[in-house]
Amino acid sequence: MKNVQRFSKAAAPNTILAAALFAIFTAAAPAILAAERESQNLTGDGTQPLVLRQVGSFFIGGRDIAIPYGEGKLINPTYEPTDVIKIDQMYVQFMFPMERKHEFPVIFVHGAFHTGKTWEVTPDGREGWAEYFTRRGFDTYWVDKPWKGRSAFNLQLINGVERGDAPPSTLPSPVILGHNGWSVFRFGPSYGVPNPGVQFPLEAVDEWLKQLVPDFSFYLRGTPSTVSYPALNTDVEALLKKTGPAVYVGHSQGGGEIITIVEAISNPNLFAGLISVEGGRCPPVADAPLYKNVPFLYVTGDFTTPPASCEPFIAALNALGGSGTSLHLPDLGIMGNDHMMMMDRNNLEVANVIQDWIDEHVERKPRGE
Fold it and tell me: Which residues contact 106 (CB under 8 A, 6 or more apart)?
């Protein structure tokens, strides 16, 4: 008994501690489980960890060109022997959620003057669509289109003129946007004057201005019209062949380019769905057969109306048995969205509208051969 008593006395504090810890855990268990559920709750407020099975980046496409350098002036002799460089490649980032909940990935493609940063954390630090769609269970890709951001442009076109190897008439003609973007993208009528109820985080406009880059696409396509160009067509098709059928989301210029990309690639059914976020126009009625097996959505924000080309195209596509939709956000009671809706204060509300459309029109619709 002495041994038992001695054991009991020695063990008593540990026993009491264990019992106390058990009681605390038991009491806390519902909160712990709730917290775990909340970590999987797809609120997108950025307060919960975004758990990924893979994150990374790669380049797609590209071609080699020889740089002879001729007999002109050398800008830097160390780096200017005859060489072969790579141009026209496209930079692609991706995030894959730990639990994939959707059959098709999404590919986000930016507009003029922008890069893939468009889809990331907003100028005022909130979660962007790249993070949110991943959080909602989509394998998510977003790109820097050829000659923008990390998809380097052909510097030979400039250096050749500097060295005297090419005439000034061969110089490319990139364009840039700054404060004028305030009115162009419908934050308000002039810089510093907001539209009533506009959703853009105006206090962070300087952070948005820092994102804007020179745009070579006007030079690459040889026209002021919003059409694609060979490098983009090639890179998009190569990306789709790598990812498999995907929902392609193009913003602004990136949405307008959808039309000529679909016309150019070998098989439009590489797209699981096509979403133009204020791409400026819908496809021509004559192209409707190309979209018969590819659901199409056009999204328009506030302070404007859907393009006139959308109604006849949507009607023609649906008459063929396809799936065409034009959504004007104010008609859904979602007000105040400017051209940069993926950055707006209600950006996740808009994202939910798009995700609901994907659920209904892409993932629940039998795909054609």
Answer: 133, 138, 139, 140, 141, 246, 247, 248, 249, 358
